[in-house]
Amino acid sequence: MNLRRRRLVAIMLVTEIIARKGEYSAAHDKVEYLPLSWEELRKRRLRAVSSLGRTVDILLKEGDLLRDGDLLAVEGNRLLVVKLTPEKVLVMKAETPAQFGLICYELGNRHLPAWIGQDEVLVLDDPVLPSFLTKQGITFTTEERVLDQNIYRMVGGGSTHHHDQQRGTVG
Q1: Is pLDDT of 22 > 70?
Q2: CA pair distance 64, 74, nearest whole angstrom
């Protein structure tokens, strides 16, 4: 009988966020990053692989959400820090208040999460939205961006149904 040897992989378990970005000193010898997408940041439970190839299981309590720069573990001189990865996004720039309103209405109607910047609106790359934007004459580009909540205000995307469909009609 030929038995294969299985290599045991140490899995790190993280159950809490030790500190937020700016609340700790990064004056350690080594920083090990845990690259996560925006969608992964929204999960309390997930398994990811660090920049050093280590498997990290995250199991946070209800209500805790990860953010870019969160400190998850300290091992000797090494920190484990969350690093938000770039996402492929549509970057829309409204030339008039009417265009801005149209963009926001369309994104809200589709229940798409959006990130509002100083003079632009971002959404995760969407296969249908470019044709709508082109028809409406709205300027947009497709880019890779880090959806950092310190730069953009995230809005929407939380519901998959219309509230008016839940309420009974009056009359």
Answers
A1: yes
A2: 19
